[in-house]
Amino acid sequence: MHFRERSQMVQLIRTSYDAGTKKSKSEIVGRLAKSNPKVSDALNAALTAQERKELAAWLAGRATVERLRRELAVRSLPEQLALAEEWFSTQKGDDARLLASNLVPAWGRLRVALKRNGLVE
Length: 121
Description:
The chain folds into 2 domains: 65 residues, no CATH class; 31 residues. The protein has 121 residues and is α+β, with helices and mostly antiparallel strands. A hairpin with a 3-residue loop joins strand 1 and strand 2. The relative contact order is 0.08.
């Protein structure tokens, strides 16, 4: 089983050997949404037992990567904010204004989440 990631989808590809042409043949068995990879009953029925195990391992690995990516973002945020502070201290143009207008609402949403979870006052 091979997993091909496209922009919004993940294709599940089964590769088999074709004795007639003496080449491998690939077929797309199913697709999953990247943002919320749910295995449908139809896809589950189309997979072999071994392919189901491979899919479960792939999904678990992807969930681990996403969890680590979020943790890394949080752990490196103070350093990123310090770098942003340095950058904004030297920038006065339209690009800085645009970035600041995107940053302020994001910072507000983060503060709300921190307060809601009792992490800051």
